[in-house]
Amino acid sequence: MKSALSNLGVRLALAILWLLQWLPLPVLARLGAALGKVLYRVAGSRRRIALRNLELCFPQKTAAEREAIAREHFIWLTRSLLERAMLWWSPPERIKRLIQVEGDIELAEREYQTSGRSTMWLCPHFVSLDVAGASILLCQKRPGASIYQTQSNPVIDVLMKKGRLRFGNAEIFPRSDSIKPLFRAIKQEGRGFFNLPDMDFGMQDAAFVPFFGVPAATLLAPSRMARALNMVVQPVIAETLPQGQGWRIRFLPAIPHFPTADAQADTARLNQLIEREILKQPAQYLWVHKRFKTRPEGEPGLY
């Protein structure tokens, strides 16, 4: 009974989200801003996580400055949640018109055609991360692949998979499955790989690497995978534009001399790159994730 009521609530929320796709993006942005201010007040647990992350990463800022970033972050975050209505259901032509692409978006196709190398698109967790994925599928030729985390609610799980696959040109692989099918898709089909390098998944295939000076459990997989498959690694940075103007997706130059034989040093370079990008738009980074949940042995928890 409880599960049925939960699914009913989820379906109702998704029905409301579906209706939001018809709103002009500036209206959706204003709605997201209003709800984001409310969410900051009522989402106590996530608010505390965001403030703690900002305290750890920006100790030089005052508490008032960090709180201002957190408040703004909840506005951007809420906007991104509402804008998924467009990403999941709006016509692809409408979405493409709202995406401003900057940089070398043709790199993946060019590398594959000239050298046979696949590309890893390295996408840090900015709030409009899903738009970066959409831009890869809508605005360039090379087919893509990504790993997804199976959702605990089956209704949401189905919808998220459909949303990420609806543009075609993509294949997704559950994080819990073997990595071999993904490797085959990259190696044999030349698919680019949409990789999210900056979450705390524990210590499996990870090392403690500084993130804003704090040891953070960070996956070594981007370096090891790129080396094993001889991949080009290209950072892709997502930004939500103010007042509902759309999104800016920046395809940065491929990281030079990457990967190397030192996976931990490579991972430190990636964290430094992500730090530089966060400083350009600090309120749009995903501060509500427990980035420092895993601690070195003997150290106390930070949350």
Radius of gyration: 19 Å
User: Which residues sit in consecutive blocks of at least 5 with pLDDT less than 50?
Assistant: none
Strand content: 15-25%
Note the gap between the termini: 34 Å
User: What characteristic shape results from the CA principal axes?
Assistant: globular
Q: Please describe the biggest sheet, giving its number of strands, its sense, and whether it closes into a barrel.
A: 7 strands, mixed
Amount of helix: 40-55%
**Total DSSP helices:** 11
Which strand order do you get reading across the main beta sheet? 1-9-8-2-5-3-4
What is the H/E string?
A: HHHHHEHEHEHEHEEEHEEH
Average pLDDT metric: 94
Q: Structural class of the helices, strands and pairings?
A: alpha/beta
* Strand segment tally: 9
Short description:
The protein has 303 residues and is an alpha/beta fold. The protein has a domain at 90-284. 50% of the residues lie in helices and 16% in strands.
List keywords for this structure.
303 residues, alpha/beta, 7-stranded mixed β-sheet, two-stranded antiparallel ribbon
Tell me about this structure.
This protein has helices at residues 2-20, 25-42, 44-57, 63-89, 92-97, 107-115, 129-139, 154-165, 180-189, 221-228, 263-280, and strands at 99-103, 119-122, 144-148, 170-174, 192-195, 206-211, 214-219, 232-240, 247-251. The protein has 303 residues and is of the alpha/beta class. It has a domain at 90-284. Strands 1-9-8-2-5-3-4 form a 7-stranded mixed β-sheet, sandwiched between helices. The protein has a two-stranded antiparallel sheet with strand order 6-7. Helix 1 packs across helix 4 (63-89), helix 3 (44-57) packs across helix 4 and helix 10 packs across helix 11 (263-280). The radius of gyration is 19 Å and the shape is globular. The protein starts with a helix and ends in a 23-residue tail after the last helix. The mean pLDDT is 94.
